[in-house]
Amino acid sequence: MNKKILIIVGIVSMLVGGMMVKHHFSNHDNHEITENIKVESPVIQWTPSTKSALVKEMYSINKNYQELVSNLAQGDWAKVIENSHNIHSAFILKQELSEEDMADLHRILPERFIEMDSKFHDHALKLAIAAKEKDGELALIYSGKMMDGCVSCHQVFAKDRFEGFSSQEEATHEH
Ligand code: HEC
Predict the structure, then answer these.
(1) What is the pLDDT of residues 40-58, one digit of tens each?
(2) Is the minimum distance from the CB of 149 to ligand 1 under 6 angstroms?
(3) How far is the CA of 129 from the centre of ligand 1 (A)?
């Protein structure tokens, strides 16, 4: 009887111990990941012409996004579709760039920037589809995700350009 209890206690403490070790290590991993992100300084080394391509993209999406918000509020689906298509096609890697600029972009853009940018443009496309269906609720969700895209990317990669983001720690979550 006593032996049985001892065995059970032994098994239970092994399980608990295992869980604690696992917990400790996963915390440790998370901690290291967060530290790495903070240490990494994502300053993109734009060349003059890739910078001007980016600014061109930003002007276009800025103008179209502002119009989009207004058109969405008015249920003007045709215009919402046009705005989202314009945003979708302003994608920096899809612009008519010289081979040299294209090679530069692939060299200087961090993976994370490309991911954020593609996700952003993907949301523009999904918004266009929602607008085609005249689905206001879904269109609203994607317009919110797009705004999230502007802010998250600027917080990480445009701290120098926007004073308002300069002293901020980067956003801890992305959608
Ligand atoms: C994937 C990254 C990314 C996304 C998404 C993004 N931006 Fe930007 N944006 C940048 C970067 C980087 C700069 C800073 C360029 C620089 O250093 O001058 C910038 C600059 C700008 C500028 C200033 C351009 C100038 O005159 O220098 C505007 C305006 C702008 N963004 C608007 C927007 C809006 C509005 C959205 C969303 C609807 C958006 N951006 C989404 C990366 C992004």
Answers:
(1) 557 899 999 999 999 988 9
(2) yes
(3) 24
